[in-house]
Specification:
The protein has about 250 residues and is α/β, with parallel strands linked by helices. The chain has 4 helices and 13 strands.
Length: about 250
């Protein structure tokens, strides 16, 4: 049955948008605007896009950090679509605060945590960390996002999560001097643990709360990247849908 509750989980791509400090910014430029008919009025329009592979809502492949890691074009399409668990960590989401496993393993997430595991066992392997920080998108505050302790990545990896997404710029800390080459005080623990184990990371999601709540019995997402050969990452048009307990 076609889903009736599709929700957009992506930020729009537009000039001047938020990008990781030091990365190439997104740019859209009209490269062709040629009139070919007055009746009816027809104009051929073509635009040129310039961006990094980590622009907007996007996926990280293991190759992003590990030279021998899988590239996005190596990864089976089915890994990008599936049931998802949304873990609510808004209570711990404060500016530049580290969110630990104790902040994740709370009563409101107890049902979701039990659902996480390999698909081969009938469980859910896409985990979405809901901080609520997406409300700060395209503001300076967005860069001062909360981030996740290495243990959070380790626990989710060991539980069988195959993709971890968040509504922040980065699951690891984004240092204030990132544009000058500064590194996070706690390193890139989340990236190292997850990408090093062949898992995927999705960053800059939005609206994760639309897939959560007591009335939701099941949530699904599609987080499919562009099929770019030898790529370390790609923007995505992420969306999700949910089934209510009444369905």
């Amino acid at each position: 049955m076609f889903p009736t509750s599709i929700v957009d989980l992506s930020h729009p791509l537009q000039s001047g948008m938020t990008c990781y400090p030091g990365d190439p910014g997104f740019r859209i430029h009209c490269s062709c605007n040629s009139s070919i008919s007055d009746k009816p009025r027809m104009v051929i329009t073509v635009h040129e896009l310039t961006c990094s592979t980590h622009t907007g809502t996007h996926l990280d492949a293991p190759f992003h950090f590990f030279p021998s890691g899988a590239k996005l074009s190596d990864i089976p399409l089915e890994r990008f679509v599936g049931r998802a668990v949304v873990l609510d960590v808004r209570h711990a989401a404060h500016s530049r605060k580290k969110i630990g496993w104790a902040d994740v393993d709370v009563e409101c997430n107890s049902v979701g945590l039990r659902q996480i595991g390999p698909r081969s066992e009938g469980k859910t392997d896409i985990v979405l960390l809901w901080t609520g920080w997406d409300v700060h998108w395209d503001t300076p505050t967005y860069f001062a996002h909360p981030y996740f302790a290495r243990e959070v990545a380790e626990r989710l990896r060991d539980m069988g999560a195959g993709m971890i997404g968040s509504d922040t710029l980065n699951p690891d800390e984004t240092p204030a001097d990132a544009s000058e080459g500064g590194e996070p005080c706690d390193g890139f623990g989340g990236h190292e643990v997850l990408l090093g184990a062949g898992r995927l990371i999705c960053e800059n999601l939005r609206g994760l709360g639309t897939l959560a709540g007591d009335s939701v019995s099941e949530a699904w997402v599609s987080i499919v990247p562009l099929l770019i050969s030898d790529s370390d990452g790609s923007p995505v048009r992420a969306y999700g849908w949910r089934r209510s307990k009444q369905e």
